[in-house]
Amino acid sequence: MKESAAKNRILDVASRLFYEQGYNSTGINQIIEEAEIARASLYNHFPSKRDLLTSYIQRAEDIWFEELEAFVGHIKNPKKKLLALFDHRISRQLKFNFGGCRFIKVGAELPNDDLAAFELIDHQKSRLKEYIHQLLLEINPKNELLQNLEMLNETIFLLIEGATVTAGITKNPEALQSAKKIAETLLGQ
């Protein structure tokens, strides 16, 4: 069943505002005003701001992986595809003016006991880690550098995540470019 236009408009506005100004700094009244909907419409689709947050995180994950697939889907070589993950992150950071990772940003605003929200955020990160893992399995497993697949998987994941955070702070892609070179070295020729 298709989502209503009002629900999509609410999610579009909330997504933009949560990313640009933060979840805690975004009020329901601002979302209602900018989405140009009635208060009842918002609460019909999202009984609380917390419910809106859940939908935001889930939708952001789906969009993130759709965009990733569009960016790297045409690449057949698994090593090149893995390295293109860094290019994808650079592209996203340029597109969003080095605003950082939306999942990390919202996670930084949540209280430590909001385990359900952290599970949603962790789901996106775990899904990325699994994506990297599958690409590593496609790369020649006889390569000596791939003997400890789990360590390499974790290293590349942390390179991507750490470089994304650094790019958001420094407002330039150098950390992601350096991380890509490190990953390329780790993967060998």
Automatic annotation (TrEMBL):
<dbReference type="InterPro" id="IPR009057">
    <property type="entry name" value="Homeodomain-like_sf"/>
</dbReference>
<keyword id="KW-0238">DNA-binding</keyword>
<dbReference type="Pfam" id="PF00440">
    <property type="entry name" value="TetR_N"/>
</dbReference>
<keyword id="KW-0805">Transcription regulation</keyword>
<protein>
    <submittedName>
        <fullName>Transcriptional regulator, TetR family</fullName>
    </submittedName>
</protein>
<dbReference type="GO" id="GO:0003677">
    <property type="term" value="F:DNA binding"/>
</dbReference>
<dbReference type="InterPro" id="IPR001647">
    <property type="entry name" value="HTH_TetR"/>
</dbReference>
<feature type="DNA-binding region" description="H-T-H motif">
    <location>
        <begin position="27"/>
        <end position="46"/>
    </location>
</feature>
<feature type="domain" description="HTH tetR-type">
    <location>
        <begin position="4"/>
        <end position="64"/>
    </location>
</feature>
<keyword id="KW-0804">Transcription</keyword>
<dbReference type="InterPro" id="IPR036271">
    <property type="entry name" value="Tet_transcr_reg_TetR-rel_C_sf"/>
</dbReference>
